[in-house]
Amino acid sequence: MISLRDHLRASVIPWFLFLFSCSSDPTLPRYEFVPDMVDAVPFEAFSKNPVTRDGKTLLTPALGTIPRGFKPLHYGTGKEEAERAGRELSNPIARTPEALARGEKVYSVFCAVCHGMRGLGDGPVVPRFPGPPSLLAANAKSMPDGKMFHVLSRGQGLMPPYAAQVSADDRWRAVHFVRALQVSAGRQDEPPRPKERQGRNIMSSGFGALGVLAVGSADAGAEADGGASTGTSTGTSTTTTTNGRGADGGAK
Asked: pTM for the whole thing?
C-alpha cells in the first residue's frame, strides 16, 4: 500500500524540478525534458543535407514528372487558347444529382460572390466592383463547356484563375451547375412536376441543382430517343473521337 509520504514525494518533486529548471540567467544550462521535440531526428524540409547531391533535403523533381494525382492543363492564357479548349475539351464528369450538388457548392463558394446565386451578375460585390457578365446571356449559353472550363482555370479579364483553389473535377461540376442555371432560367414560369418538387434542393434563388437535373434528364431522354447526342447545352450535335482524352477533359 502506498503511504502518504510516497504520495507527497511524487507530487512535490516534479514541482521542484520545474522551478529549478526555470531561470532567466543565460549562463546556466537548460534542461530538455523531450529532446526529440527540440532537435528533430529526421532532416527538416529546408535544412542542409550532407547525403543528397545538391545538399538540400527537398529534392528537385525529375524532369518530365508531375505530382501524383495532379492533372495538368495543356492550355495557356488568352482568347485563342480559350477557343481551342472549347473545340477540344468536353466535360468528362457525368451529370448526376451528386455532381450537380457538388457543382452548386463550388458555385456558391467561388462564383456567386460576383455572378450572383442566379447567375445574373448581381453578386454582393456589385456595385463596388465592375459588374460581372450574366451567365444567362446568349454568349454564355452558347459558350462550349471546354471554353467555360478554361475561363475557370485560367481566368478572363478581371476574373482570376481558380485552378489553384478548385480541383479540375470540381471545375467541371461547376460547369454542369451553370448549365443547370441556364436551363432553369428559361423554365422558371413553368410549375414543377411532382417528382421535381420532391427532389429539389432549394437555394435562395428559388431553384436547386437537383430540380434542374430532373428537367435536364427529361431533355436528355428526348435526345436519346431521337438518336442525337449533344456535347454542350447549346443543342449542337457533336461526335466524340477515339483518339484519347486530355488530362482535364476528353478531346472531342
From this structure: 0.56
